[in-house]
Amino acid sequence: MSTIEVSAASPRSGEFQQPVVNDFSIQVATVNGSGSQTANSVLMRAIFQMGIPVSGKNMFPSNIQGLPTWFTIRTSKYGYIGRKKEIDFLVAMNPETAREDVMKLDAGSAVVYDEPLKLDALRSDLHFYPVPFDKLVGPVCPEAKLRKLVRNMIYDGIVANLLSIDMEEVHKALLKQFGKKKAKAAELNWGACQAGYDYAAKTFSKTDPYRVERMNATAGKIIIEGNTAAALGCVFAGVTVVTWYPITPSSSLVESMIGYLKRFRIDKETGKATYAVVQAEDELSAIGMVLGAAWAGARSVTSTSGPGISLMAEFVGLGYYAEIPAVIFDVQRVGPSTGLPTRTAQGDIISTALLSHGDTKHPLLFPQSPEECFSMAIEAFDLAEHFQTPVFVMVDLDLGMNNWMADPFQYPSKPIQRGKVLTAADLERLGGFARYKDVDGDGVGYRTLAGTNHPQAAYFTRGSGHNEKAQYTEREDDYVNNMDRLTHKFETMRAHVPKPVIDYNPKANVGFVAFGTSHYAVEESRDQLKAEYGIETSYLRLKAYPFTQDLLDFIRRHDRVYVVEQNRDAQMLGLMRLEYSAGEIAKLRSMRYYGGLPLDARTVTDDIVRQEGK
Amino acid sequence: MSTIEVSAASPRSGEFQQPVVNDFSIQVATVNGSGSQTANSVLMRAIFQMGIPVSGKNMFPSNIQGLPTWFTIRTSKYGYIGRKKEIDFLVAMNPETAREDVMKLDAGSAVVYDEPLKLDALRSDLHFYPVPFDKLVGPVCPEAKLRKLVRNMIYDGIVANLLSIDMEEVHKALLKQFGKKKAKAAELNWGACQAGYDYAAKTFSKTDPYRVERMNATAGKIIIEGNTAAALGCVFAGVTVVTWYPITPSSSLVESMIGYLKRFRIDKETGKATYAVVQAEDELSAIGMVLGAAWAGARSVTSTSGPGISLMAEFVGLGYYAEIPAVIFDVQRVGPSTGLPTRTAQGDIISTALLSHGDTKHPLLFPQSPEECFSMAIEAFDLAEHFQTPVFVMVDLDLGMNNWMADPFQYPSKPIQRGKVLTAADLERLGGFARYKDVDGDGVGYRTLAGTNHPQAAYFTRGSGHNEKAQYTEREDDYVNNMDRLTHKFETMRAHVPKPVIDYNPKANVGFVAFGTSHYAVEESRDQLKAEYGIETSYLRLKAYPFTQDLLDFIRRHDRVYVVEQNRDAQMLGLMRLEYSAGEIAKLRSMRYYGGLPLDARTVTDDIVRQEGK
Amino acid sequence: MSTTVTPPPKKVNRIGLEVLSYKGAKTTLCAGCGHNAISERIIECFYELGVQPWNVAKFSGIGCSSKSPAYFLGLSHGFNGVHGRMPSIATGAMLANRTVLGIGVTGDGDTASIGLGQFMHLLRRNLPFIYIIEDNGVYGLTKGQFSATADLGSKLKTGVINDLPPFDCCALALRCGATFVARSFSGDKKQLQAILKTAIAHNGLSVIDVISPCTTFNDHEGSTKSYSYIKEHDEILNELDFVPFYEDISVEIDEGEVKEVELHDGSKLRIKKLGRDYDPSNKFDALKAMDEAEKKGEVLTGVFYVDTKKPNFMEMLNLQDAPLATLPESKVRPPKDVLDQVMEELR
Amino acid sequence: MSTTVTPPPKKVNRIGLEVLSYKGAKTTLCAGCGHNAISERIIECFYELGVQPWNVAKFSGIGCSSKSPAYFLGLSHGFNGVHGRMPSIATGAMLANRTVLGIGVTGDGDTASIGLGQFMHLLRRNLPFIYIIEDNGVYGLTKGQFSATADLGSKLKTGVINDLPPFDCCALALRCGATFVARSFSGDKKQLQAILKTAIAHNGLSVIDVISPCTTFNDHEGSTKSYSYIKEHDEILNELDFVPFYEDISVEIDEGEVKEVELHDGSKLRIKKLGRDYDPSNKFDALKAMDEAEKKGEVLTGVFYVDTKKPNFMEMLNLQDAPLATLPESKVRPPKDVLDQVMEELR
Ligand SMILES: Cc1ncc(C[n+]2csc(CCOP(=O)(O)OP(=O)(O)O)c2C)c(N)n1
Ligand SMILES: Cc1ncc(C[n+]2csc(CCOP(=O)(O)OP(=O)(O)O)c2C)c(N)n1
Ligand code: SF4
Ligand code: SF4
Ligand SMILES: [Mg+2]
Ligand SMILES: [Mg+2]
Q1: Which of A408, A561, B141, B158 is the most exposed place for a label (fewest CB within 10 A)?
Q2: ipTM of the complex
Q3: Distance from residue A536's CA to the centre of ligand 5 (Å)
């Protein structure tokens, strides 16, 4: 339990605080299963509708009901949507955590709280707004058993009033949230919301500096979770076989995919499904089905998290060695083992890149936004089929399960790429084929699909030693040739994986390398470093492993390169160490965070400053 | 099919070949399931009994009967027992491979073959000895159905005569091989052996230069397979729970352990077993049982190969994070996937060191000889219980399944080390404990065993987030502290793992680093490099991961350090790259072989010479 | 060996412990979750029978159900493993220390989906162990997807209907080697207590499938694992009466309709058949009863099968009576002459 | 849809292929291995029924048995996967292309030990697929350890006796959802042919447990899976006669003792009951017959169960008739306006 030294000075007394507009964070502390999620989404959406850049992060426990949950909403006129370390405006609804939540705040922060908690006794340097929620909820919600839920909507009204959030927008957000079907519920909740607003209006004289003002920075944007975006990506990638085994934080990816498939992938003419979704009995089965389906020509995908990846190790080695396309989403959570299932991490990087015994290497993609969850899902299928190998899309809980502002997704510009598949006609023309022959010099052979109507279509797939003709062999030369071709194939991939996004700063001799959700902290930290310490930086955001030439160039052009990642063992840096020469490695530094929360800019900045010795 | 240019010159014609004594290799080419194994062992043992350093390597196919098998016996007065690349003396019994076997030979080699194969027509630069095996076997083996087996013993006689192997020793070896119970079979085979000897004596005038002479280099030594040695190690380590799932090349480790346990581990007083062996339904279950047993205080072990290691990935992560001792033998075979199940490799190094999702790291031991299979088995248990973590012993097929000369094993000098386990008395004294508290500053907490007769003995073990008291937590600080302690524990291990064996050569600026069976090739290659190219080398033989300070010092003391390993991706070198600074990494070079055969010195020498630009 | 003890003072059991010594941490499961009720029953039974808590080990996989061992027997060692693999962990632990009483709590997903293979192989081994399935037909902790025990036609809140036949864990247990097999309902206090106590006294593998509704995700109209559905369809196979070894049975009731089974520790399970003619020592009777219930759409609860004779895993392994975990070095490391002998053989 | 075709010329089948087109590579299994005989039967049946070889896909796990797909149907795609996980691979492939005829060959270790979980879950799904277990009670390829189908009391060459009860794959298949369940013996050419042909014609999951002795490791005195043991204990349940759809049944024999089952493609299986009264469309009859045989120590072979009505996995999934694998982009990528609509919903 943290015990912060607090200045005795009351904020009310004298010294005036500059108004803080569109640049603060709100935290709502409740318990899960209490239905606060709706109220929080409405709040976030209302701010979004006012054109203000906003992000929402849900910190929830690994159970279903009754444990502490925190939802933080960040508004940022600068467009920063990473986590903000400091909480400026707290809504304390959970008696269990209220004390610690309040003690953690910086002086000058504001606290809306449930009156009976008497939090104002704790500190004198905060702005307190006590609210008698139980008193207020009674009149607006006659039905006692609904009050637990409706209660939450009251704080929306309170907050709207204190932060001058437009109630029109709140109402609109609320209606959208409940949808047409739940009109009655919407009305009930709107009543509660207004009650809160009115109470605040007549009770509080605002003393804190926080408020919002309309902007025009969100026009046309959408709000979506990364998992939903990835699901859409698969649907538009033309996925045909989907297998899964539920696991947090991956489940919602497949569950939303199922929803879209049902809506958009039933064949008009036949009324039948153009896809198959199987909830497998476990992850071994899920990946087995994916490999079987892909082998027979389906675009197949499975989604899981760390524990599932570990269980897939043997099968993924088969996929690598038998050369079968597969797309596997790893929505990462904190490990090792069960770890923290509802916290975020980038901790499966190296073990996934090298997954399975023997000499194996797998391509990984690292989406950073919902837009990239969508586009990389499509790229992943093309890549997997082009290179006939399992491809991993490394999402994390923060990206997958939190709500993100995003630009509407681009409809795929190029047609689906199915890779080197020989049809009956091709076979007729060629008079046969050798499955594992490197015909084109790219290390990728030609394959046929079961059921191809030609007597020469067949070949025998196995995880044991095979020659170019896919025949069983134990010969030293056959085995070595095949393994060398696989290496060559992996090298060829470098030119085909998504290229990094690079911001070269001619003034910088320090460079950042980051990927996935670490991006948001790095982006903001760069501004902090420059503004506060005059440290100029360049930035390369990785999108894929194997690395492209760009990374090497980037390292060479800087004196020190900080690889920022959310794991303990500097795993991405490790992948670089595995292949780079001493000269580059000498320049690499590590910035790691592994506390399970979405990475924030201040943590990055402080660490870099320390390492830069400033 | 290789087609070698061969000189027309016949060996018989003119030029005299220096006799080659105790320094050549014999290869017997047969099919598996034909019972040649006995004949080969007898041959090897007879030479061994003559005091001549000898090694035998069986190259067998991944089926049970009827495919080509090669057994090579190497004699070396210098004591080299690695594989010799060149075959000097071939016994060609397998029609299927005879032609290629012969074409591969260097000029001047000798060939004993089954007369009908007419191999002498193939080349004129070899010494051919045709033998009418079917004619010879008839008289000595009236029973037709036994002839297939007895036939093999004939070539023992032939070879004994041609190489002047003492028939007394052959007889002794044969009797030992068959044991008292099979006296009749022994007699029958001895007859065949003599028939072969006599036939050779009266038929051939020896033209090849190869023969053996008595030495005194094997006195007191034993012949044993690495797996058997490891099994004995476990028995003398006081193993109490053994679980396994059959897999080549690991099965024989547990099967021989079962044999010894039955003989030596039945309690005299009670007549009951002081151990439990369970053939599990698969490797997930095998490792689960090991973890459960070790958690409850048993010394438990399982043995498998690559595919099993992959299946254990999730559970091993639990072992790491819940901190449970376990000993896991990985008798490595060629991967990825099923690969070549009956060929050897060192290909699971990096994937095992980093096995499981999230941030995980595991200690690995690398036995190089039967002696070390025995001693490291014991060390592995002590290490696992001391550090409360899974420990892997990385054997390979060559060491595990081939016959090796070895010194008799030393009886353990120190008592069994059970690590930090609190008894009821301790708890009484301490008045409780915190399972994951770093009391001693070594990162290792104290544990209690289920069934400890004390109300404060209990704690709750989980793979999810926990604090020092082993209580469930999702707190950032708890999680980070715990993960940092685990890192500290791993660092502490460096001082406790077996130290490398180092041969510093003051004249050398080139160093070798090798481990396991790569040692034999390196040892011989060093002599070749010095004798043939004047290249002086130092040598560090690794025994364990994490690395000790010695490795760092070794690298620093040399300009170039070649890491020799039997895999494609330079996995051990990779582990060094993950932790060393640029300066050291700049010195590291890789020598890799991944053809599935035991590594030979010539292959190493040629590659080093190439890299050294000589 | 049944002895008469003077009834212990009101607030403590026969080994002098209060019920508090059998409780665990505060539950984090949902209010009304069937699993909580089962935890309560476990606490009561271990308390009432006076089992030494620190001679018990608890095991579980992953799931809401698998969390529950943290909420009972706080003085017992606990091991919350990985999803679906509890049987192997428990087997290892029981082998390491056969003197410890082992109890496992798992879910239907943990047991019948990902864990089916381990469950089935545990059955073959007849390990002395109590295996409880808290069966709600869904994956609670991952928010309510169907598990492999979901009944045909059962409906999710989302409207999805299950079209795959369920695994009946009791039927599998019966066929594949468990020696005490029963089904109960988290809401049936008396029946569940008798079954749990029998399992505690039994010297072989006990498999108890307890229908335990998930109030949050599977307690609605259309679910076949809801409280109301079970209450309507619960068909009680037999009436049970457990008599601990340390209690005298004074009143002998009419033998005609009661079958008495003497358990390993001398306790007795008295089974009163209701209506149907049924012999709980006969596998095939049990299977028939289940099949009929299945046809009629009944949820049959009670004791299906009990076999006190079949050798358990420890016996098959001819295992030491003393725990392997703590055998002294003298028992587990053979003397030097043994090594010398082996070396000689290899010369 | 049964049509009359003029009998094809002597050396080719009705689609004009010679038997050679149905053979595979030379076997690398031991001489006398039961698995080789099964491969022969497979070759014959596919040839005689005139199945298009390149419209067949072969699947297996790891083991001697699992090697055998390389030794038949050389013109069919084959997938030799990992140990015990063939069911998932096959399921995926069948979903990708439902028009392909899928046949899986596996071993008792592959199916009942490491693979039991996948096997059981495959059963639930009633995937249209032929699942053959080449059952020798041991792990052949790893040199003869007991598998989970080894019978109680069976002895290894080393003298070790099996003391764990076996899994009966047919009983499990029956209970858990397979719609054609049969057991045969690699040595019974006629029976095995009729069963294989029925499986080829069946439109659901066929599970065929074929006792297939391991001559090298489990064919000795004391083994219950040896040729001689099976020959002595083989108890034939029913006599089978398969009539392909393209052949007229002229002679109608006495209905009294023959049950005729019409299969999906119009072929007919005619089952002549021997002695015991038995209805192969009744699960419970089948289970009873098995249980009795078990008690008597008989190895019951024949057709246990056939159900041609139960919906298969493709139907449950409401799957396209055309192979998913080759659906055109127009069918699998929704048009732009759909994406726009979704984006609008998310604004
Ligand atoms: C390997 C692995 N896969 C998936 C999960 C996610 N997961 C956690 S609990 C659970 C299912 C629990 O269902 P059940 O066993 O029925 O327990 P219940 O919550 O219903 O009591 C799943 C799939 C996991 N923890 N580990
Ligand atoms: C994961 C894994 N574990 C173990 C093995 C070793 N292995 C190969 S085949 C086999 C058993 C085969 O037995 P069965 O399925 O009965 O086939 P059979 O050889 O008897 O025909 C085993 C254990 C493996 N290949 N993969
Ligand atoms: S989700 Fe269901 S199973 Fe989980 S605790 Fe809540 S009620 Fe129980
Ligand atoms: S070992 Fe047995 S199962 Fe394998 S091929 Fe030989 S006889 Fe067949
Ligand atoms: Mg459940
Ligand atoms: Mg078998």
Answers
A1: A408
A2: 0.97
A3: 54
